[in-house]
Amino acid sequence: MNAPLKLTDRKRQAIVEAAIAEFRSTGFESTSMDKIAATAGVSKRTVYNHFPSKDELFAQILHELWVSIASSPPAPYDPAAPLRAQLLDLLNKKMETLQDGYFLDLARVAIAEAIHSPERAQEMVARLSVKEEAVTAWLRAAQADGKLTKADPVLASQMLQGNLKTFAFWPQVTLNQPPLDAATQRKVVDATVDMFLAYANATE
């Protein structure tokens, strides 16, 4: 059981959550630290004690996004386990992250701001690629084991994760659609795995 957060940590988290709400509502440039403080229910001095600038507050949001992406890395490839079962487990964990409400809020803020800042967009793409390398490494191990005879690991990783995002990330982030229900999540994961295995000339 996790220990309760200290008051200062609770205030810090309240500030981050308030910033996410305000950045989503009015955009990064139009959001003031005064407004963030009011939404968080803390003084402006408290906000600046935790985050000396709005840029540092935004950097914290990006940091939390990267942490949430890496919070549940895929299990190592297991030569003794069925390939399909391992892929289902891998993509179900990915789906769980993509459909988490807090993660989606973080992503909405980060992507909206990246559109207006090419430098931030480049940083996001670079860091996201590093975080998603775990899937590529898993696929390389499966290929080395002779289970994936056709698929290029880098391309295959993009295909697998991109297909999930088509249904379970981009509609929620760009169109504000609700997360998929459990049955639809399973359907998307099952179809993605089966199509991929047919393409990859997988051998059990």
TrEMBL record:
A Pfam short name: TetR_C_7
GO molecular function term, any single one: DNA-binding transcription factor activity
Residue ranges of every copy of the HTH tetR-type domain listed in the record: 9-69
InterPro entries: DNA-bd_HTH_TetR-type_CS (IPR023772), Homeodomain-like_sf (IPR009057), HTH-type_TetR-like_transc_reg (IPR050109), HTH_TetR (IPR001647), Tet_transcr_reg_TetR-rel_C_sf (IPR036271), TetR_C_Proteobacteria (IPR039536)
DNA-binding residues (ranges): 32-51
UniProt keyword terms in alphabetical order: DNA-binding, Repressor, Transcription, Transcription regulation
Keyword presence, Isomerase: no
Full protein name: TetR family transcriptional regulator
Species annotation: Duganella alba
